[in-house]
Design brief:
12 helices; 9-stranded mixed sheet; Methyltransferase domain-containing protein; alpha/beta; 22% strand; methyltransferase; Methyltransf_25; Rossmann fold
């Protein structure tokens, strides 16, 4: 009834990881390596945004739950940032990602759940954190689920990294290469604009989104940039030989026009990156609306080895 599904089906020049659910059989190690990290200095503002309860009598079941946790890159950054006594949990729909997460954080429960069905008890979480996966699940059902599992005045935080390749000296020439193969980059609306629109459509669940952008430099390999550009859906549908021609052409172009340095046999480049953070607070339950949405609690399915 409320579902208004918003999903990026193709990408333009924003260099961001695909949500875990869209990765198919891609190895989790490649997924983890390709994503920009979350430097502690960049996400430091979240420390004052998230509320970690210190009174043991008021402690929720989990202080922080990373939804769509993937391999745990955001959890790793939050563990560096937040107090050592913070109780973490994760929700991840992909089995391969859950395995990778559990290998890195065996002490943290990782639940086989989805964004709109976390299997967490009602009012059991102090803070929910979600990364770029929000763009594949920004819908009313997701926000209702987050509202359900958060404690009163619980916080919802959203953070992602983006590299705008349009600001790089080689992107104009890359466009020419793509056009020479009759490939045009699709135009994608602003990710932050779409996120705010989703919250605007559900005004009774959370306070107005607050946001902050922190510029950083993302160091990556020429190969990673090339592979990213080849994730354009129209390129993936081309014959393998033509993909190889495009890959080689773009790699040579980047190496000739960008400041490339060599480290351990790898060709590295620095790209301008933004860490974008959003946060809001759970609003009190509308008793009239709550009466028409009775929730039956289901025990969480926690990964066990």
């Amino acid at each position: 009834m409320y579902k208004q599904y918003i999903k990026t089906t193709s990408v333009a020049t924003r260099f961001m990881a695909r949500p875990a659910s869209s990765l198919g059989q891609a190895p989790s190690s490649i997924y983890d390596q390709a994503r920009p990290d979350y430097p502690s200095s960049a996400i430091a503002p979240l420390k004052s945004v998230l509320h970690i309860e210190t009174d043991v009598r008021k402690k929720p079941l989990y202080d922080v739950v990373d939804v769509g946790a993937g391999t745990g890159k955001l959890t790793r950054a939050l563990k560096r940032l937040l107090p050592t006594h913070t109780a973490f949990a994760a929700v991840e729909p992909s089995l391969a990602m859950r395995d990778a997460f559990h290998s890195t954080f065996p002490e943290i429960p990782v639940i086989d759940g989805s964004y709109s069905g976390t299997y967490l008890p009602s009012e059991s979480v102090g803070n929910i954190m979600i990364g770029y996966a929000i763009h594949s699940c920004a819908e009313r059902n997701t926000l209702e689920e987050f509202h359900r599992v958060l404690v009163p005045n619980g916080r919802l935080g959203i953070v992602w990294n983006s590299v705008d390749l349009s600001e790089t000296p080689f992107m104009h020439e890359v466009d020419k290469i793509l056009k020479s193969f009759n490939i045009l980059k699709p135009v994608v609306p602003s990710e932050s604009r779409r996120l705010k629109d989703c919250f605007h459509e559900s005004p009774n669940l959370f306070t107005e989104l607050e946001s902050l952008q922190v510029p950083i430099v993302h160091t990556t390999t020429v190969q990673d940039v090339v592979e990213y550009l080849l994730t354009l859906s129209v390129v993936e549908s081309l014959p393998h030989r033509k993909q190889t021609d495009i890959r080689l052409s773009i790699a040579r172009l980047i190496e000739s026009s960008a400041k490339v340095r060599y480290d351990g046999g790898q060709k590295l480049i620095d790209l301008p990156c933004l860490v974008e953070m959003f946060w809001c607070t759970k609003l009190p339950v509308d008793e009239t609306a709550a009466a028409s949405h009775v929730h039956v609690s289901t025990p969480p399915r926690v990964m066990k080895h």
